[in-house]
Amino acid sequence: MSDLDKAIAQLRACRPIPEAQVRELCHKARELLIEEGNVVTVTAPVTICGDIHGQFHDLMELFRVGGDVPDTNYLFMGDFVDRGFYSLESFLLLLCLKVRYPDRMTLIRGNHESRQITTVYGFYDECLRKYGSANVWRYCCDVFDYLALGAIVLGASNTMSPNPDSSETESDQDVEIEVCNADGQIMTQFSRQPRGRGGRGRSPNGAATSAISNGIGPAVPGGPMNSGPPGSGASGYSGGSVGNPAGAVLCVHGGLSPLIDTVDKIRLLDRKQEVPHEGAMCDLLWSDPDEIDGWGLSPRGAGFLFGADIVRVFNHRNDLSLIARAHQLVMEGFKEMFSASIVTVWSAPNYCYRCGNVAALLELSEDDSGLGIFARSNGDVGRSDGNGGNGPRGVLMENDPSEPKSGPARRYRVFQAAPQDSRGMPAKKPVADYFL
Amino acid sequence: MMAQSVPHQTTDKKRVKVYELRNNDWFDRGTGFCTASFVQLEEGQPKEPRVVVESEEDEERLLLETKIVKDDGFQKQQDTLIVWTDNGVDMALSFQEAEGCALIWRFIDGVQQTFQGINGGPDDGLSDDLAIDIPTAIQLPPAELGTLLELENNMRVMSSTANGRDALAKAIMRDDYISKLIPLVEMAEDLESLQDLHRLCNIMKVVLLLNDTSIIEHAVSDACVLGVVGALEYDPDFPSHKANHRLWLNSQGRYKEVVRIEDEQIRRKIHQTYRLQYLKDVVLARILDDPTFSVLNSLIFFNQVDIVQHLQSNGGFLNDLFGIFADPNEEQLRKKEAVLFIQQCCAIAKNLQPPARQTLYNNFLSHGLLRVINFGLRNIDVTVRVGATDILVSMIDHDPQMIRHTIYRQIQEKQPPLTDTLIDLLLVEVDLGIKSQISDALKVLLDPTPPGPPEARGEFIVGQPRGRSQPTIDPQQDLFLNHFYEHSAVRLFKPLIDLEKRVEMKFSVVNDGVFGYLNDILCFYIRQHQHRSKFFVLQHNLAQRFNQLLACKEKHLQLVAIRFFRQLVVLQDDFYIKHIADKQILGPVLDVLLRTMPRDNLLCSACLDLFALINKESIKDLIKHLVENYREKIMALAYMDTFREIVNRYDNTQGYTAQVDPYFLESEDEVGRRPNNSGSRGMMEHLAVDPAQEEYWNASDDEDENPVRPTPDQTATTNGSSTPKPLVEYTSDEEGDDNGDAVMTPAASLSSEENSKENQEPVSSGSAPAVGPPPERLSEKRRREEDEDDVMDKLVHHKRRNSSASASNSAGNHSAAALRKKKSFGGSRDASPNGPGQKKIAISISPSIKNSAAVKSSAGGEEDSK
């Protein structure tokens, strides 16, 4: 068993690893992360997760629901630390897994991966308590500076992959969205719908989530619903035709920036720095979608609010079918907005041990039609210029471009906080000695 | 309302028979479970108080659902009966147990009481802020195991209204109820009655979350504290767990007393403060709500103020404390603990008001704090070094001038100044935390900017920019800086300077971190020290030294070098611009880029960022230098907008063509998009005619005393080490784009015809909706930390704060200050580090094609941004 595996085992038991080991881990992680672009290219299948916020036991629950590393390919969209009482163990475990399985684990930066924010919202304090000095906090903050700012998921399928946990064997190719509970049972399914029925501005996954929040059990077995809920954003102007590679999915913690009109512009940022108070890098980590036109001031004091039109133009220009982001608590764990052109994924159940929300992760399955992945070259620079016009994309562009891209098939797994028995009473580590 | 404090008061179901009077006979509707609660029937409607009975046979069936209204005349008869009139029908609830009846009755009675107090609609009476005179004196049942259930229910109900909470708090203090409850914990433990223990825990939670200062103070008193936390060890939320709070708080030796504190009361306060912190962080951490959180925090704060005030005014104590360091025979352990004691004092002092803090530090200094710091910084034990660094940094944070005076005095007295100690420590220290704190200290101590009053440096900096351009340096500061550059600077930057003699760029993992810190410090000095730092950089040829780092294998060291060059460029100071050109700095950076290029990594982004900056700010000397010296390399990169534009900028302004230059159009467009941007220059240039452009370049030639020779390979030789050969051979564009280019730039293979089509497609379809310019930011707003709007606030009524929300700890302040500085100097760096439209187009060296392509792309770009 290597040291790294030992560290992983220790962290899985929610026990911090010694400072020297953290230092070594952070150095390794730095070497790894420096090789990543500001926008990491990830190929489907991938499981996308939102905020964790130091809720270690719920992170374990997430791995239980989503599958363990390296069996499942994970993409975490930042905010690993702060607020929860186990930021340290959570982040170090994720980092260990990143170093151990670099290709199966993608970590991007959230607004809480910052010196300034962590000193206020708990991570600094936690490190100080657990190690008696802020060194580990400093090591971690150095790693934060190297984290990528976003990720592009390529090769996601338009067709829902068969659900291994479901009793249902046939997979319906019309299914665009599937919502499962923690045990993998299908709760609701939505087929592809002509776009525009719902229109933007309505609560997008309202119907899907009401099914969840009402606690109504698994949807009627015997077939998916044929009609998507109004405003569910269930897409599919192409009629759900098989094999059309879905466009790419951009993953970023916060959202868009008025200074970034193409994904490639993100690649030009010198990201190795504390999250600035303004500018493109700040916006990517701080912005929120909102029911407005154009751009608006963010009540957070950093980043912007952006409306459906912004998302539409951006997705069109960059050949994206979907933007996945985190950053905002959604009680149902996920929330699709703007005709399913953007989704918020939240992975911290019962946030702060008291919000009563459920969490979700988003699974994008692999496109096995052989068309999707080769539509783009991988990771190099002339990649997603939005008007490159190679092969299949060029064909797609012939369609009325005002239609948003057909979204990839999305399976949301909704889960609750880890059962109380699986963990002790969450609390901070008390100060051991005192003089005053 | 206390949302999370206790389970909802009405979840307990009570078995009951429902009767209705029919023809003078009580008709039995059935048996079920009764609940009484506020129910919201429709969204937006106020909640209604309702009594509901669910059938015990069929949960779905309701035997009774009635709204409590004023005229129903609810009455309680005997112990188990409640009667009333529902729409003219007499009804009765017959409870199996008196307790259940009491509970429901209490709810009904509470609702009716509010009816009596007001004339308005019944629902209004339920809000907290309504002052109704409930009889303030309430009688709590005797504290016995048998009455716990009743007590718990009573408390839940009462704690749901403001008046109830008031009355409850009074009753608890009046009867010293906590002391009565405490024996019950051990009794229940002896009986192993988990149910009672859970009840006691719930009761104790309610008591503490009543949020009454005197109750909390009483709860952490010596007499009560163990019993209180004992009760809280059995949390019904975690039925299979038992906490060990008593064990923790009772264990001896947590309190370290370096010097005996004679005052009994202060000693007690110290213990109480520790317990309060334990309550806040551990016992109540999960369930703490905002009001209780602030009550705990303020109790802790005032205790700490008292403790520190007492200590600093206690001369005997201070003599004893600092005497420890004067005594050579004193054992190391005691000295160590004394350092840690002072460290904790300083940590507490950060929360004090500045004048009180000042007095404390003055008293410490006069008793010999510097000796302590000196002792600590050189100590072999890392905890002591950390402690001493912390003490020093907290004083520097408070008032750097105080420390500067001391150093100045040391210089006058020909003693080794503190700065030298710090420098030595920075270079040899292995502990990263100490290193980074010292690095920060060396910046702050050598910041010549006149500091405002200490308290103004924190929050009120906005709108009163510190005079950076011409700081008025007081003579003392001037001497200090002179001394530093004469004696200490070489010592500090020795690892960099020593690179000159190095052939191989290999460093151990332990050592290579130092370059990052030195770069940080040097960048800061370059911004702040004007001519002194210029001379220093020139004298020691530091740019060339950083250049050497580019040859390292470790990418983070290459990054350090690129950051340094970026700093030089950002300043847009003629001296440094010329220095960059003279030292042929940018060639090796281009090499790094070419070497890395098809890969998309951090190094690559950092290089691109640097060149995008040169392009965006159109630093003419550097553009000229780049194109004249490295034309081939730039052309090899010209599939990226930044480099294409750099070449075009040079070519166009030389007057070879009268065509309209594309980026002038685009930069206009940029101006429209970003009102803050310094785009005026672009517009001026747009208006300029050819003669002016010629003059533009002539003028710059005149400034050049040593015109650089256009030999791109020169860098390789001046370096002393050979430039690594690029991994991939890149053919230049003239040679066609069949192989090498195809790999690097897929888009480059497109014909320009296709390009223009692609560019314009969004336009022709007319689908791109108008996207307005982003609103202007209120940049000062975002500096406020509280603006990190927790998402929670919107969703949960009670914001829960983390314990460190008393945010003024050093790291926070420090990085905030650092950010401010970065911001003012970084200027527009983050505004748009990249050029305008990033379209990939084929570049041919033929001017006519080039220009047509450029024009098309600019047209596309213009449309796109509409």
From TrEMBL, chain A:
It catalyses: O-phospho-L-threonyl-[protein] + H2O = L-threonyl-[protein] + phosphate. The active site is at residue 112. The keyword RNA-binding does not apply. GO terms for molecular function: metal ion binding; protein serine/threonine phosphatase activity. It comes from the Eukaryota. It holds the Pfam family Metallophos. Residues 230-239 have a biased composition (Gly residues). Keywords: Hydrolase, Manganese, Metal-binding. It is an enzyme of class 3 (hydrolase). Coiled coil: none annotated. Residues 190-239, 381-436 are annotated as: Disordered. InterPro entries: Calcineurin-like_PHP, Metallo-depent_PP-like, PPA2-like, Ser/Thr-sp_prot-phosphatase. The keyword Metal-binding applies. Residues 108-113 form the Serine/threonine specific protein phosphatases domain. Its EC number is 3.1.3.16. PANTHER family: SERINE/THREONINE-PROTEIN PHOSPHATASE PP2A-RELATED. Belongs to the PPP phosphatase family. This is Serine/threonine-protein phosphatase.
From TrEMBL, chain B:
Its main location: nucleus. Residues 712-724 have a biased composition (Polar residues). Residues 731-740 have a biased composition (Acidic residues). InterPro entries: ARM-type_fold (IPR016024), EVH1_PP4R3 (IPR055236), P4R3-like_central_dom (IPR006887), PH-like_dom_sf (IPR011993), PP4R3-like (IPR051137). Residues 803-818, 839-854 have a biased composition (Low complexity). GO terms for molecular function: protein phosphatase activator activity. GO terms for cellular component: nucleoplasm; protein phosphatase 4 complex. GO terms for biological process: DNA damage response. Residues 13-114 form the PP4R3 EVH1-like domain. The keyword Nucleus applies. The keyword Glycoprotein does not apply. Residues 150-651 form the Serine/threonine-protein phosphatase 4 regulatory subunit 3-like central domain. Residues 699-866 are annotated as: Disordered. It is found in: Nucleus. Keywords: Nucleus. This is Component of IIS longevity pathway SMK-1-domain-containing protein. It comes from Lasiosphaeria hispida.
